[in-house]
Design a protein that fits this description.
heterodimer, A: 238 residues, mainly alpha, MetI-like fold, 9 helices, 75% helix, B: 261 residues, alpha/beta, 2 domains, 11 strands, Putative glutamine transport system permease protein GlnP (chain A), transport (chain A), transmembrane transporter activity (chain A), amino-acid transport (chain A)
Chain lengths: 238, 261
Amino acid sequence: MSVFWSELQEYFPFLLKGAEVTLQLSIISMALGMILGFLAAVGRLSGRKIIRWPLEAYVEIWRDTPLIVQLLLIYFSLPELGIVLSAFWAGVLGLTLNLSAYLSEVYRAAILAVDQGQKAAAVSLGMSPLQVYRRLIIPQAFVACLPTQGGYFIALLKDCSLVSFISVNELLRHATIIISNTFDSMNTYLMVAIIYFLMSFTSARCVSYLERKLTPSRNRKPKIKPTISEMPQGGSII
Amino acid sequence: MTIEPPPPVITLEQIYKSYGDNAVLRGVDLTVRQGEAVFLIGPSGGGKSTLLRCINFLERPEAGTLTFLGETLCSQNRTNFSIAPEKQLRRARSRMPMVFQQFNLFSHRTVLENVMEGPVTVKKMPKNAGVGLAREALDRVHMLQKQDHYPDQLSGGQKQRVAIARALAMEPPVILFDEPTSALDPELVSGVQTIISDLSNQGLTLLVVTHDPAFVQSTAHKVCFCDDGHILESGTVSDIYTNPRTQRVQKFILSSGSRMT
């Protein structure tokens, strides 16, 4: 155990450096993946086949091939096409494209699940399709699929370890470097596992907090305390 | 000598609508005049709700002519049927808001935000003015004290009153009601009906679909009996409930136990 502690002190900062890259990868890829996934979802819901079909093909192809293969393809074949990306940005691109394929399905389902009656009410007030999206569909669908999105974020955080295969210096790759010096795989991987756990657990808590914060519910107090006393209203009204 | 009738707000001529092979509206003629409370009654599946939804183009009619405050929203000549551009339809919708059976309040917004939504988002009213207008509308339905609640904290009757306020905040010349009390507990029905009657007494034009004969008899200026995609008969309350002309209407009035003597 004492070995673990001494190694912890020596190598932990180096591992944290890697974790920082992992976090950067995840956050950037998540943000881009959310935007792309949303656009793909809206495109797939549009009536036009010329928009819908390529997007459906994209979602299927990306979901049906392994992420590691996608990353390797992007990293090694894009330079052939004259596009040179650093390992980090190749990783971001790979993770983003993969994630948005999955997220587009999540968003599509969430958009379709918004109450038809409320959509009809919005339209009947004279809202344009864009206003209906902005004022009704997006706010409701986003909150409804928040837990699922949180799940995907945690999966992404851990999938970032695959990016070590294309030489991005993230958490797992830093661990590999340490192990090649110390040959102490067990303690190093234990530290890696602990760091992943802490990052994932914190994210999961944040998502739950956000969900509670954004869901108006029966259990929640009204936004502001009513200023007018709750007297029964006069006459024939209920 | 006859008194000049008030000008028409909504005029329908030979409106058709079908879903696949199922012809729901098969040539409906209807005129709603300013200040009138027109009630559509008839059996379920007779096309009443579809008719209402065709008037504000939530459903698109397939043939016929519809005029709203002098604007032609869809028109039919011998060979051609055309619907006005989407932008014009939206403007028309904002002037004939609808109150739904299931209330359909925006569940992620407070009562006040629900009522402000129309004026602020659709009519681009400044937020302050929108709040003022919304509070005024809520006051008219006695719901001001619940302005900061969320819809799922309200009873059915309260929700429907907020939905009426949401329609009122558009300052519309006419409001469409689609079975406004059908989803309410019996003891909440009269409160909502009283509010609707009051609006009519204040001169607002109403087009109401309902199954409640007592509500029709207390409030309607004109009753239209709708079945099988047609308006079979229309007239005053006593025309329909005391002296129905057709057998179909007689049967319906008798079976619903609402015949007036």
